[in-house]
Structure formats: structure tokens, C-alpha cells
Design brief:
The complex is a heterodimer of chains A (about 80) and B (about 240).
Chain A: E1 2-5, H1 12-23, E2 36-37, H2 47-62, E3 68-71
Antiparallel strand pairs in A: 1-2, 1-3
Chain B: E1 3-7, H1 14-24, E2 29-33, E3 44-47, H2 67-70, H3 72-77, E4 81-85, H4 87-94, E5 101-103, E6 111-119, E7 135-142, E8 146-148, H5 151-159, E9 163-168, E10 187-191, E11 197-200, H6 218-225
Parallel strand pairs in B: 1-2, 1-3, 3-4, 4-11
Antiparallel strand pairs in B: 5-8, 6-7, 6-9, 9-10, 10-11
The chains are: A alpha+beta (about 80), B alpha/beta (about 240).
């Protein structure tokens, strides 16, 4: 699960990382935004059920819809 | 009035609130463990500051799903008041009992300092012992106090007078330099539509004795209790 700040939100941490990268000589960096990876190990669910449950987990806890978006990747 | 001070794993301002309510204000108070959802004996619940659950996932995220927090809507529906300070404010926003979210300070530094707050709404149960436009002095101590809400929510907060405190200078000017964490519109504290739940980032329990630098924090409690006032004009609840 990838959790990212909504694009409309100022990412101060990302801006700081960008400054640090350009300071190290990576002038090509135009923008940096820092998100979160949450790896979940689910027990014996088939794909569509897993996706449904993950959406529920996200809605209830794993992301804050006021400031974050999320995407789910089943591996 | 019966006060309850809620404790989550990682809460740290519980003792300070308990001390102020008991020793400074002389009101009955007891601690409430976060798994205890039986709130019938209380009139006012405090969600204190700290680092509940280590601020893991998001500050206040896990605590916001605790049994005691899930019992709050019923508690306020029957007349209970809820005051959340710092981590308590974060918890209330995560639980959707207050709109918006608290994010990492824009300067990315932990800010532990004195701030001034402009009283925007002196009609709430938490501020009726204050005057609109009054400037309070209260300390903050947080790394994630930047208040954010979308434009529609901000518009609604303003229309309903739900913005209660804003960071300001000592003279009461709401300017960028007075904003310690980048909060939208210098918002330091908001109240819900019903007027029963107040969240603020500063620490009123650390501004309750003159030996520690000021007593403006007690004005919130005097408002709740319906006591005191500077000029004798405040009426009991």
C-alpha cells in the first residue's frame, strides 16, 4: 500500500529533501514528495476479496483522507 | 464538575492536567484508561498531550480508534464537554470529531515555546470567561501542529465561528511571524459545530500557575466551570 500526501498539500519534508539533493549536485530534480509504504501480509484471501478488505483497512485506519491518497498493489 | 483525564499508552500531559484540575481548581478528577468506555460519571473529559502509540502511522491515528474515543459522540450528545490539547487535538481530528488534520510543522522542527493566542470566539463553553479579541499566552510543544483543512472546510469553519484561537503577536496581530508551525490562517484551536468539543495545539495545563509563567490556561477551565471573571460580568452556566 502506498500512501501519499494529496497533490494539493504542501510537502515540507519533500521540499527539504529536494533542497538537499540539489545541494548534492542533482540539479535535475524538479520536485520531491515523500510518502509511505505499508506492506501487509494477508492470510489466504483471494485477490478481489483482498482488495476489498484493503480498501476497508485504508478507509478505517491506514490513510487519512483529509490529507492523503492511497494506492494498493497486490504482489 | 466531574473531570476525567484520558490516558493512552504514550500520553504524557495527563499528570499535569490532573494536578491543575485537582490542586489549582479544586475539582473532582480521575484518570480514565483509554479502554474504559463508561463515561457516565463525567461532565468534562480531557484528551491530554503526548505521543500516544508513539505517533505511529500518524499522530493520534491509533488512539483515535480507541473505545473511549468511540464513546465520545454519545458522551457529548448527553451534554458532556471534551477538551483536547496537542495530541488530544490530533486524536479528535483523526476520530473526525473535529474537522481538518494536524500535519508536521512546516519548519520541520519541534517547537517548544511560548505563543500568543487571539480569542476569536468568546461565546463557547470553553471561552465564555474570555473577551473576543483577548490575547492569551500559552506554551506549545509539538512537531506536528500544522493545521490543515480544504478550502470548503475552512469556509465553513469561518462561517460557523468554529475557529476559536489563532496564533498572534503579543499585541494580537495575526501574522506569519506569530505562526510557529505553518497552520492555515494561523489556526491554533477549533470547536465542533455543536460547541461540545474543543481542540487546541497549545497546553493550557502548562499555563495555570504564575510560578510557571502565566495563568491564562485557567480561563478555559473557568469558562467550563462557569466561574470567575475579570470584571464580574460573566454569568454562571
Amino acid at each position: 500500500m502506498l500512501v501519499r500526501l494529496k497533490s494539493s498539500i504542501l510537502d515540507a519534508q519533500g521540499a527539504t529533501v529536494k533542497r538537499a539533493l540539489t545541494g548534492l549536485g542533482f540539479a535535475e530534480v524538479k520536485d520531491v514528495r515523500v510518502g509511505k509504504v505499508i506492506d501487509l501480509d494477508l492470510d489466504g484471501l483471494e485477490a478481489s476479496e483482498a482488495r476489498r478488505r484493503l480498501d476497508e483497512m485504508c478507509a478505517k485506519l491506514l490513510h487519512n483522507p483529509v490529507i492523503e491518497d492511497f494506492t494498493v498493489e497486490l504482489l | 464538575m466531574n473531570f476525567g483525564v484520558v490516558i493512552f499508552p504514550g500520553t504524557w500531559s495527563d499528570c499535569d492536567f490532573h494536578y491543575v484540575i485537582s490542586e489549582v481548581l479544586h475539582q473532582p478528577v480521575r484518570y480514565v484508561w483509554h479502554r474504559d468506555a463508561n463515561l457516565s460519571e463525567f461532565d468534562c473529559l480531557i484528551l491530554p498531550g503526548g505521543f500516544s502509540y508513539g505517533d505511529y502511522l500518524r499522530a493520534g491515528a491509533v488512539a483515535g480508534r480507541s473505545p473511549v474515543v468511540e464513546a465520545l459522540p454519545e458522551f457529548t450528545a448527553r451534554g458532556g464537554l471534551v477538551l483536547g490539547s496537542c495530541n488530544g487535538f490530533q486524536i479528535l481530528c483523526e476520530a473526525r470529531l473535529l474537522p481538518g488534520a494536524l500535519m508536521r510543522n512546516e519548519c520541520l522542527q519541534y517547537r517548544c515555546q511560548s505563543t500568543h493566542l487571539l480569542v476569536e470566539n468568546a461565546e463557547t463553553p470553553f471561552t465564555r470567561a474570555m473577551r473576543p479579541g483577548q490575547v492569551l499566552k500559552m506554551p506549545i510543544s509539538h512537531g506536528e501542529g500544522k493545521y490543515h483543512a480544504d478550502a470548503e472546510t475552512i469556509r465553513r469553519l469561518k462561517a460557523n465561528h468554529q475557529i476559536v484561537f489563532r496564533y498572534c503577536t503579543e499585541q494580537g496581530r495575526v501574522i506569519k511571524e506569530a505562526n510557529p508551525n505553518g497552520s492555515l490562517d494561523n489556526i491554533a484551536g477549533v470547536i465542533n459545530e455543536e460547541g461540545t468539543v474543543l481542540g487546541l495545539m497549545p497546553h493550557p495545563e502548562r499555563a495555570a500557575e504564575s510560578t510557571l509563567g502565566g495563568t491564562d490556561g485557567t480561563l478555559i477551565f473557568h469558562s467550563i466551570l462557569g466561574t470567575l471573571v475579570e470584571d464580574g460580568s460573566f454569568l454562571k452556566r
